[in-house]
Write a structure and sequence with these properties.
- It is built from 4 helices and no strands.
- The chain is an all-alpha fold.
Length: about 110
């Protein structure tokens, strides 16, 4: 079996490093097989996450471009107010509902 080896050094005066060392030393050997396998799985998961983020960023940028192109030719004008008198002001409850709806829409991205 051929192997590729890489060494990792931890700084014992760095609290993040010592926390990682403690975690690696406390791994359940039955669940993770070995520290080496745990580290390999963690690297694979990180790569998969980074690739998904990149794909999502590309998809989001394409969506923005399409939306921009479609909305570019639309002209928005306000209609004249009708003779009926009504308030254009939103109540606090309506403002909160609008804000919540806008946040929910943005959360989809």
């Amino acid at each position: 079996m051929s192997e590729y080896r890489i060494n990792v050094r931890f700084n014992l005066s760095d609290t993040e490093h010592t926390a990682i060392i403690d975690y690696l030393n406390s791994l359940d050997k039955e669940k993770y097989k070995s520290r080496n396998q745990f580290i390999i799985d963690a690297i694979k998961a990180t790569i998969a996450y980074a690739e998904k983020q990149t794909a999502d960023d590309v998809l989001l940028e394409k969506f923005r471009e399409i939306l921009k192109e479609e909305l570019c030719g639309i002209s928005v004008t306000a209609s004249a107010p009708s003779s009926d008198s009504f308030s254009m002001e939103l109540t606090e409850e309506e403002k909160q509902k609008n804000d919540a709806g806008a946040i929910a829409f943005l959360d989809m991205f």
